UniProtKB/TrEMBL annotation:
The Helicase C-terminal domain, residue ranges: 491-637
Residue span, Helicase ATP-binding domain: 293-458
Protein name, as recorded: ATP-dependent DNA helicase RecG
Broad enzyme group: isomerase
Function: Plays a critical role in recombination and DNA repair. Helps process Holliday junction intermediates to mature products by catalyzing branch migration. Has replication fork regression activity, unwinds stalled or blocked replication forks to make a HJ that can be resolved. Has a DNA unwinding activity characteristic of a DNA helicase with 3'-5' polarity.
Superkingdom of origin: Bacteria
EC number: 5.6.2.4
Keyword Acyltransferase: no
UniProt xrefs under CDD domains: DEXHc_RecG (cd17992), RecG_wedge_OBF (cd04488)
One Pfam family named in its UniProt record: DEAD
Keyword Transferase: no
Family as reported in the entry's similarity comment: Belongs to the helicase family. RecG subfamily.
Gene (UniProt): recG
GO terms assigned for molecular function: DNA helicase activity; hydrolase activity
Amino acid sequence: MSRSGIHAPTLADAGQTPVSALSGVGPKVAEKLTARGLATIGDLWLHLPRQYEDRTHVTPIRHLRGGVPAQIEGTVEAVEKGFRRRPMLRVAISDGSGGTLVLRFFHFRAAQVAQLAVGTRLCCFGTPRPGQQGLEIVHPSYRVLDDDAMTVLDDRLDPVYPAIEGVGPQMLRRLVGQALDRLPGDAALELLPGDALESLGMPTLRDALLYVHRPPSDADMAMLASGRHPAQRRLVLEEMLAHHLSLRRQRIALQAHRAPALRPGTLAAALQASLPFALTGAQSRVHRELLIDLARRKPMLRLVQGDVGSGKTVVAALAAAAAIDGGRQAALMAPTELLAEQHAQNLRAWFEPLGVRVAWLAGKVTGRARAAVLADIASGATPLVVGTHALMQASVAFHDLALAIVDEQHRFGVHQRLALRDKGAGGDRVPHQLVMTATPIPRTLAMSAYADLDVSAIDELPPGRTPVQTVVLSSERRPALIERIRHACADGRQAYWVCTLIDDSDEVVAQAAQTTFEQLSAALPELRVALVHGRMKPAAKQDAMRAFKQGAVDLLVATTVIEVGVDVPNASLMVIENAERLGLAQLHQLRGRVGRGSAASSCVLLYQAPLSRMARERLDTMRTTSDGFVIAEKDLALRGPGELLGTRQTGLAEFRLADLARDADLLPDVHRIGDAMLVAQPALADRVVSRWIGSATRYAAA
Ligand code: ADP
Ligand code: MG
């Protein structure tokens, strides 16, 4: 029988059964599981072990090796409870093989201490590491053995699942087991063409799931640990395929719409002629790419990525000019008021001398002023509109929006981008869309994450910029650094001092910035110091930024609110506190605030010792390169794409299994299989998407 849609109901029944159908799952457990995205039996199939415990044999203590997980059987010889710096429990066990092993606990209950009395026999599992006195295992899983009981050996490897709060590991293992018992046969489950799987040497979905959840005792552990076992690759392939198909379908849906063909005319020519600089080669190339898209009757959906300072705004302005030349409107939306205001200033400086009015709309534009702006947008009197999220409000109606530009789009969700686009929709017509980002996306990721967009890169900075010199300093050197700021500012330079905390709460970060502001103001009484943080009123924030921009402030103490797009060419020194806590992309964004003028600039990354290996590598990367694309590749390798892109940027659920840094080599197969499927079996493609992405497909209507 063919594998096309016929079996859909069977699959739907098996995989989409709610977890509450499993025995032992009451409303409480169901709620805990659902909170972690495990709502159905199909979700449990895809909740893969993060590691395995080999309980097929017991290792004598004498044979233990550091770093190699093992199951051990032994008798408690000594127990020591300490509370010096923090509570700690050390339990020494031996097994007659001539060795002693220390079990170490940092969290423990009184009942546990009572249980682990001298003479107790234990079976435990964990990874030994060298400790003060030979090998030790921190927080092993263990079980007390009856006096003469033997450890029961398993005949396969025990999966260890990512923990779910409120659902114990044993329970979780049991539930996944029950879910697997309900796995339908290949005929109902398999969606990928058999010949493709065969040529890739990959098992069917059913076999892959059974293998990954219940590997046989002779499984290649090293390969499983690397995530590159054919069974794992099989699952990753289908997940990546689902994402690819979902994005392709969005693109196909968009292409079914029409858009106004826009051609540059006298305004575009006048704008280009009036610019005080010549476009860089990269800007010209991207400009041409945009004009080709805009001249079509199909809606453009193009991402322009370019490092901070690469000059994206002027390219967007030239595209807007083409829309205005066609007698229509263009809108530019930015994620913060500060940034939107800066765009408004730039666009006014460029367009108003040419007789084009620029409307400004933000939350703080209220009352009569707002009514007037809205009226001008609705009548078409202002062909160019700049603003914040306020542009997406229901009260904003355009006369004829032909081009929607979204800056720093990763700050917006996809639906917000679409909300602006919908302002220009009418009948089957939608406006062209241009999205801009300064977060460079590595090529592999762009191919996968943006299969619905065309991507252009401005990969060249305007001439005359001097690279930012980056130094990494321990926070103990703070006093010397303060002296350095004193001297730099005495020379007429300006500086940023960026306060960061791992804490997401605006309030805590604002408090830390306030404290730093007070300390620096006291230490540098001759300087004009100002403060900007997310908890300030927008007007106060603007005032401080404006003062800094105009040179009335020497030192700006700020939280990461200054991250996006702010342009102060005279600022040539930046200090970033707790730099070890930030990701590469964010550090790069922040550093991009300096080095915008012609003065030599520097960036000081302050860290709190000790540094983790990852943090050291990140800071080293920052020190040795300023190329956003190189940094993005490194970021991808260091922490994976989940954080880099996140759901907000792609508009999709994050990958459950795939890791693009590891699995990018599957992309050509994903594209080949996916594109063939869209042509020959679109119904099958739908099922792949809904199996893996489910609710996120509501964007498919985009
Ligand atoms: P970003 O890509 O970060 O948004 P901007 O568009 O803000 O960069 O441009 C940064 C600065 O560079 C602005 O002051 C802009 O006027 C200037 N600029 C843009 N293009 C050029 C160019 N080709 N030559 C010189 N300066 C340029
Ligand atoms: Mg910008």
